[in-house]
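In the current project phase, the collection of sequences with tokenised folds has grown. One resulting record follows, to show the layout:
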Amino acid sequence: MNSKKGKFYTAGKFAEKAGVTLRTIRYYDKKDLLKPTEYSESGYRLYSNQDFAVLQKILTLKFMGFSLEEIKVVMKEESDKADFKHSLNIQRHAIERKMEHMSHILEAINETEQMLDSEDTLDWDKFILIIKAINLEKISAEQFKNAANLKDRINLHEKYSTNKQGWHRWMFERIPILKGAKILELGCGDGSFWLRNKDRLPEQCEITLTDISEGMIEDARNNLADLDKNFTFKVMDAQNITFGDSEFDIIIANHMIYYVQNREKVFSEVDRVLKSNGVFYAGTNGKKHMEELFNMVENFREKVTFSYIRKNHKFKLEDGKTQLEEWFYPVQLYCYKDSLKVTEVEPLMDYVLSAPGNLNEILNEKDFKELEELFRNIIENEGYMYITKDSGVLEAKKR
């Protein structure tokens, strides 16, 4: 599309040309980082060639670990030319850092190859070194486990839940915490569980928050910085808990077990680091959780799926108790009664775009506008969109 002001791209074409998802463009628009240059008469977002430089800077600073708020400040402070030059300079350093990391992987591969040629006995530590190096790069690049997506999903529940107590405060009341207890949280996310209960945190407790995502840990540390409590933060995989045997009185895993590839390894590790009278609390969802929303979006277009959440959900309210009883006893299920009555379209779109699925691969800008209109019609006709919530917590005591 061309005009007197130059060439313009729809959001979908702009995203395709830049090699990013449409969700990314929409999200940066929402955060006032990358606003459209213009809007078409039909209301479509239009972006110019100059917007590629803006997007490059956002992605570069994000890669370097800047928060979106920090990126916004940096972008406001610099002029266009200096801005672009600074972005290129940062990108150069980022690439140099990645090249250094890849050289470590290459070095490990070369050493292993030499070992295979010259030694009769295999040194398996060499293979482990390669795996660790590659996994470190994979984890660093993994964008799914970031706080922005998590916040979009949490915000929908906090704003439109019919149960005004809230999930985090309800779950906290299921966990009797004694003075001086040692507590470990697996998959802590951005620390919301503790932030929502800041007015009743236990005295003299040692609370260790862990997550496989370094970005999540950084957000949790920032969110809890003003609380006068003994928090420790650690990047850690729940499948490989780096603590000694019998260290913790309480271990919490809030809506994260179903993301783990090897649940048995997690249960084994939890059992190992729990004290003899320790308790493991695992929050999860049931089959009916968010079913109205997921069904509607999956039926909206062929091949759209939330299979990562639905079909691949291997730790549900319906089967979680049986799985835990292989390692712990007794196991008690507590169900949380709640639902959603959503009265706005944008939070629904934010939720489905942040949830694991293939929307960004299947839907284009026109589809997203039609989906928004579908949500809008339901809300206008019914007053709200009703969505079932099916959540609970499993209390598992060490045998």
Remarks:
- The domain at 2-77 is CATH 1.10.1660.10 (Multidrug-efflux Transporter Regulator; Chain: A; Domain 2).
